[in-house]
Amino acid sequence: MQAVIKTGGKQFRVAADDVLTIEKLGGETGDKIEFNEVLMVGDKIGAPFVKGAKVVAEVVEQTRGPKIINFKERRRQNSKRKKGHRQELTRVKITTITAPERQRVFASDFAPSNRLICGPTISGPQTLSPRLLRTRTHGT
Questions:
Q1: Which of 1, 6, 69, 88 has the fewest CB atoms below 10 angstroms from its CB?
Q2: Pick from 20, 21, 24, 46: which is nearest to 99 by CA?
């Protein structure tokens, strides 16, 4: 099973036993990290996250990326600036991907709050047909 998680402002597609290099997270080698910001699991797409889904990973090592040198020079002015940077990184191994159980979906879950519903008043356990229901969006 595959999932898409969000961490460090980036999105990663992961599967079980994958090893990722991500921006630094707290924890020592061997600690478990739980990612709750899961954007997609299998064929379920979240809005924005999938409720009840989580991805568990184990910290492999804390490391640093390659040195990046930022060098500025202004010609004919004897002005030079040199600055270096190394990004702190964490390597993690994905251990488990947990998807939520199937839940019943109701139409009220998708009804936006900024819509005004106009139509006949129905009492009792009757259903509305789409041609009897008119929607009007405010401001358009």
A1: 69
A2: 46
Q: For 20-54, write each residue's pLDDT tens digit.
A: 999 999 999 999 999 999 999 988 888 889 988 99
Across the beta sheet with 88-98, the strand order is 19-23, 88-98, 54-64, 32-35
CA separation (Å) from 138 to 24, 108, 112, 116, 130?
45, 19, 12, 8, 20
In the prediction, which pLDDT does 56 show?
A: 95
Domain range summary for the chain, segments of one domain joined by + = 2-102
3-state secondary structure of 49: coil
DSSP 1-26: -EEEEEETTEEEEEETT-EEEEE--S
